[in-house]
Amino acid sequence: MEGQRAKSFVLGQHLSVAIEKVAHGGHFIARHEGQVIFVRDAIPGELVEVVITSTGSSFYRADVVNVVKASPDRVSPPCQYSHAGGCGGCDFQHIDVARQRQLKADVIIEQFSRIAKREIRVEVEEVGDPLHWRTRISSATDDEGRIGFYASRSHTVVPVKDCLIATTGVNYHELADRRWPKKSRVEISVSSTAERSIAIAPAIRGSKSRLTQGPQLLKEDVHGHELQVTHTSFWQSHELAPEILTAVVREHVRENDFVLDLYGGVGLFTAAVIDIIGEGGHIDLIESSPSATADARRNFEQMHNVEVHAGDVEKKLDVIDRADVVVLDPPREGAGRGVLTKIAALVPCTLVYVACDPAALARDCRVLEEMGWQMTNLRAFDLFPMTHHVECVAVFEPSQNQ
Description:
Layout: E1 14-22, E2 28-32, E3 35-40, E4 47-55, E5 60-69, H1 97-116, E6 124-125, E7 136-141, E8 147-150, E9 157-159, H2 172-176, E10 184-190, E11 196-202, E12 210-213, E13 217-222, E14 225-230, H3 241-250, E15 258-262, H4 268-277, E16 282-287, H5 290-299, E17 306-310, H6 313-316, E18 325-328, H7 337-345, E19 350-355, H8 358-370, E20 373-381, E21 391-398
Parallel strand pairs: 3-5, 6-20, 15-16, 15-18, 16-17, 18-19
Antiparallel strand pairs: 1-2, 1-4, 2-3, 4-5, 7-8, 7-10, 8-9, 10-11, 11-12, 13-14, 19-21, 20-21
């Protein structure tokens, strides 16, 4: 009946709400007069005043404008640009770092419970300093050529004099003193060998960038192997991520193994395990990015037991006839049923799944369990401190009942 419908809110409306819990994607859930509201800059347990910023058919979005009752985990953001209407990059700066990790664990647990129908326990492990960790930065410029970042859910560029999560090698404050092409994207990359490259592109989504400073190929050291990485190829953004993630993968690879490195990029995990498998082992690396596969072929051209396959992972899996260990690091949307079905058909002993989105990992976990696999280990790493993002590594093995 009409009188039983939940109340509607309008843009700009102010409401007083209680924050219930964290949601996937970095927002926090509040309910008011029958409606669900996703709130930025809050913490569970707080009483806050919010302003409605967008409306939808089943929920609203809002920003905190006043904290009535603060959580004991609320802190002053270390960055002067972390505020409503400011830089939209670091959405957890207002939260104590230890609580940030607990909230990320809560999200992983909730996603597995809701999507995978599995009750799990996980701790998000601390990784280094929560500031000065990011080696890959994508900035934007405003109509005056000042460099900065977009405000949350906005096309407005907030000029920034320094980025506190950037590594010192980025030297962001020096870049902020320059004037850049107006309304552009500025991509800064710093390698483990202290090289810095800068590329510029129009702000239009999907536009190609042009290298303007630094080497075309950055050099990254991985377990004694030098990898060359084009500025357009993917590389882990946290300076410690290659070390942390490869250490986990190496635990599951043995001498003479045939390894399948899916979504393998320029070869981070291939370089990490090539010495372990030895002359009797073999690695098939599959990657769809043209620049990354070109880098991978250059990086392993002298290694007879590494074969790089360029193209769609699901299609290229048709040429693979053996795998003892499968390592996959898919994009945010996950691997999907098609890829997982072809992996399972190879009957590997172990599958090591690196995931940047817990919801996608939970979906793929459910698919694997339907196929007779079981998750035997799950670790999570705080490789994106000050943000809601988190990296997981899950290990799957065939069920004994398979």
